[in-house]
Design brief:
The chain is of the alpha+beta class. It has two domains: 16-161, Creatinase/prolidase N-terminal domain (Creatine Amidinohydrolase, Chain A, domain 1, 3-Layer(aba) Sandwich); 165-395, Alpha-Beta Complex (Creatine Amidinohydrolase). Helices cover 35% and strands 22% of the residues. It has helices at residues 10-16, 25-42, 57-63, 91-97, 110-120, 136-146, 153-161, 165-188, 195-206, 273-292, 299-305, 308-311, and strands at residues 46-52, 70-75, 82-86, 102-105, 128-131, 150-151, 211-222, 244-254, 257-258, 261-267, 315-316, 321-323, 329-333, 353-356, 360-361, 372-377, 382-384, 393-395. The strands form three sheets. Strands 7, 8, 9, 10, 12, 13, 14, 16, 17 and 18 form a ten-stranded mixed sheet that branches. A six-stranded mixed sheet has the order 4-3-2-1-5-6, with helices on both faces. A hairpin with a 2-residue loop joins β8 and β9. α8 packs across α9. The protein is globular, with a radius of gyration of 23 Å. The two termini are 21 Å apart. The model has no long low-confidence stretch (mean pLDDT 95).
């Protein structure tokens, strides 16, 4: 395995090289103030922050604990937080990393343990809220004990729309880890490997730096006889051949921060005229959209910039723009090939992070390319947080 050069400045490299990377006390206090104000606005005295499935989500954002199998955090203003973790063998690490938190095992049933702890804190009916993907069984158990449980997930996602400078720093690290995958693919794509092996190349690039996989989607097809327009979510065993085009969408995470990079590769041959036109249109759409990105831009202006794809005689299948960082966030500008909800009445603000990703396709949906990456809205405009060249890439 080749450990690619991380190429981050010393400040960001120092974060990566921590034994267990953590956000600063200033950042965590900022989040805590936002959460407590959200609780006050919702009229709740106790908050259950829930996570599962090795995703950080709300638990990581509120506490800095990156959820393993299951985590339930109880927040009560003025009291020490309690974190319940599953499984029992995950308890020692959680206690090592969360020294200012009361960390306990979740017991045989985490939700039962949580309910007992809320009762011990004096929780009353109507006074409990939830952030995170609590499933229906635990929700019913919580409601049976505390009545109407307030859903604060909408508020949580609104809080995640604007990133702090420190959160953007972590996203830059995740973006760089994602870019390492592109560098590895440029070097290692060759005829005879399949999409599973492409995934191994991707993950091998960032794993040595503490990155982990969120997605790596691939679409491999012949330029002469194409049969797909957007990367597949599950890898096939089709072998890469000379004359193929490969489109990809890659997200690596650094703890719970994420980048996203989308690129197209041509194997053993130059792009055909069709694919040259598809990629030129995708590049033009990216540039047109990027020029609109600044504080105060309304979503309608972004959608108008994307119209050049249809004017060129093509369409797009994937969302051309979506918010990112802490979830799949507004604004979402979807494909004209589906029945879209109305565009949100939303203007851009500093600290927002978007993915601009023109997936330009033929109208018969047989051929397509992908390009794009994460963009941060700044006080003066927009900035890509990625370093990988935009391509397209000619391999071999």
């Amino acid at each position: 395995m080749i450990k690619l050069d991380l190429k981050l400045d010393a400040r960001l490299t120092a974060i990566v090289e921590q034994e267990y990377p953590r956000f600063s006390a200033v950042e965590m206090n900022r989040r805590r103030a936002l959460v407590e104000q959200t609780m006050l606005d919702a009229g709740v005295d106790h908050l259950l922050v829930y996570g599962a499935g090795f995703r950080g989500g709300a638990v990581h954002w509120v506490s800095d604990w990156h959820t393993t199998y299951e985590a339930a955090l109880i927040v009560s203003p003025g009291k020490q937080d309690t974190l319940f973790v599953q499984f029992y063998n995950h308890l020692p690490l959680a206690r090592t990393m969360m020294r200012s938190t009361d960390v306990r095992w979740g017991g045989e049933q985490t939700i039962k343990t949580v309910i007992d702890a809320l009762e011990a804190r004096g929780a009353k009916p109507g006074g409990v809220g939830v952030m995170g993907p609590l499933s229906i069984g635990p929700h019913k158990a919580l409601s049976a004990k505390f009545g109407d449980v307030k859903d604060l997930n909408g508020a949580y996602f609104r809080l995640r729309m604007i990133k702090s400078a420190e959160e953007i720093d972590w996203a830059r690290i995740a973006a760089r880890l994602s870019d390492l995958s592109i560098e590895a693919l440029i070097r290692d794509i060759r005829p005879g490997i399949d999409e599973r092996e492409l995934g191994a190349i991707v993950e091998g690039a960032y794993t040595p730096w503490g990155g982990s996989n969120v997605i790596h989607f691939f679409g491999v097809t012949s330029m002469a006889n194409p049969d797909l327009c957007v990367p597949r979510q599950h890898p096939s065993t089709r072998k890469v051949q000379n004359g193929d085009v490969i489109s990809t969408e890659i997200t690596a995470s650094f703890w719970d921060a994420q980048g996203q990079v989308l690129r197209t590769f041509f194997v053993g041959a130059d792009p055909t005229p069709l694919y040259r036109d598809l990629h030129a249109t995708a590049d033009a759409a990216y540039e047109a959209i990027f020029k609109t990105l600044r504080p105060g831009t309304h979503v309608r202006e972004i959608a108008a910039a994307a119209k050049l794809i249809e004017k060129a005689g093509f369409s797009f299948y994937d969302d051309v723009v979506h918010g990112y960082g802490g979830g799949y966030l507004p604004p979402i500008i979807g494909s004209p090939t589906r029945n879209n909800d109305p565009l949100p009445d939303l203007t851009l603000a500093p600290g927002m992070m978007l993915v601009v990703q023109p997936n330009v396709i033929t109208r018969d949906e047989k051929a397509g390319v992908q390009t794009g990456e994460c963009i941060v809205i700044t006080e003066h405009g927009a900035e890509s947080i990625h370093t990988a060249p935009r391509g397209p890439f000619r391999i071999g």
